[in-house]
Amino acid sequence: MAPSTRASITAAAATFVAGAAFLGTRYLALAVFVLTVALALGWSRLTHMGRPFVTAGVIVSGSALALVAVLLGGQEPYLRYMTIALGAVVVASLVVEVFVPAQPGHVVNAVASTSAGGAIAVAASAWVAADRTPGSAYLVVVGAITLAIAAVFSALTSRAGVNSFLTFLFGIGAGAGLGFVFPQMGWYGGMLVGAMAAASVVLIHELYRREPRPRSAWAGIASGIVPVLFAGVLVYLAGRLLVG
């Protein structure tokens, strides 16, 4: 899959999150769950591991548990409730290896791959935690929109350094502009959220740039969705810095 296609998937997924967040927390949780299902379907192919359905089951189960825990959590910080799901994913990755073993010589890689995919899916619940945080109105909407804009510029040229610069420039710029649109954020808060969103895009796309392009469509989709799920934690941290 071409970098421009992957960037388009990232932008589309981020726009999906922004729209769901505008509708409400439950819609946001549903949108995040849909994205984690798409991630699960392509994760084993993206990491060149076997047992796609087993791996997908662990990832989807971890995501569902984390989202439910964060949604039903009664006290702040809401993100703390997802640690239960994170621990469950790691244990499940080990248990799965016992009952559905990988090929000889790939045991450690299989456990690491399943755990990493589950951790990303669980971390995506941070979008919901950020949305539930009092005083952080429109934080998720701004974060997702800046993420979509940053993704567009992450594959604009054939030079990685230029793309990274443009991603941060327009991500931060978009965040500052949205800060004026949503006065609750402020331009400085928008800049911080934009910087976090741009960092998510640059970090993940730089890693994938060093790997062979995935041939599977689902693997390519998964690679485009990862920055969106991962960005939830960074947006949540930005919100905690702004709100306290």
Order of helices and strands: HHHHHHHHHH
Write down the oligomeric state.
single chain
Classify the secondary structure makeup into a structural class.
mainly alpha
Task: Identify the overall geometry.
Answer: globular
Portion of residues within helices: over 70%
Biggest sheet architecture: none
Determine Rg (CA atoms, Å). 17 Å
Beta strands, count = 0
Number of domains: 1
User: What gap, in angstroms, lies between the N and C termini?
Assistant: 41 Å
Strand content: under 5%
What does this protein structure show overall?
The structure is a single chain. This protein is mostly helical. The chain has one domain (3-243). It has ten helices and no strands. It has helices at residues 3-23, 25-46, 52-72, 83-99, 107-123, 126-132, 139-153, 160-181, 187-209, 217-243. It is globular, with a radius of gyration of 17 Å. The termini are far apart. The model has no long low-confidence stretch (mean pLDDT 86).
Quick structural overview:
This protein is mainly α and 244 residues long.
Helix/strand layout:
Layout: H1 3-23, H2 25-46, H3 52-72, H4 83-99, H5 107-123, H6 126-132, H7 139-153, H8 160-181, H9 187-209, H10 217-243
Helix pairs in contact: 1-2, 1-7, 1-10, 2-3, 2-5, 2-6, 2-10, 3-4, 3-5, 4-5, 6-10, 7-8, 7-9, 7-10, 8-9, 9-10
